Amino acid sequence: MMPGNPIGHEERETAEAVLNGRNKNLQLQPSDNKLLEDIINVWQQFNDLRNDINHAGMRQNPADANKMINNIKDTCGKVIEFFCC
Fold first, then answer.
1. Cα dist. 66→2, 27, 38, 49, 71 in Å?
2. How far apart are CA 73 and CA 81, in angstroms?
3. pLDDT for position 74
4. How far is CA 28 from CA 11, 33, 47, 81, in A?
């Protein structure tokens, strides 16, 4: 583990595999845990937002600016709910 890195490389890869749906060989499946399933959905929403921003509207069906602002607010609100409720 690198200094300042809260988790090691292997743990990060495992978490990314779960969040990105590449966890075919892992014991924990999203359908086993509602919270995990919700976290994965928010992760995927952030991935879509990130791709719209990074690819500057060059994706198929990019969101317009107002929709992106609303999606960011909604998605951030969901993250806050994970920690507050």
1. 39, 40, 24, 12, 9
2. 12
3. 94
4. 14, 8, 22, 23
Domain extents for the chain? 29-84
**In angstroms, rounded to a whole number, what is the distance separating the alpha carbons of residues 44 and 22?**
13
Report the distance separating Cα 19 and Cα 9, nearest Å.
Answer: 15
Q: Which residues of the chain have pLDDT under 70?
A: 1-6, 23-32, 57, 85
Q: How far apart are CA 3 and CA 40, in angstroms?
A: 27
What is the rounded distance in angstroms from the CA atom of residue 43 to the CA atom of residue 19? 7
Q: Residue 1: its pLDDT value, please?
A: 46
pLDDT number for residue 73: 94
- CB–CB of 40/21 below 8 Å? yes
Quick one: pLDDT at residue 56? Answer: 75
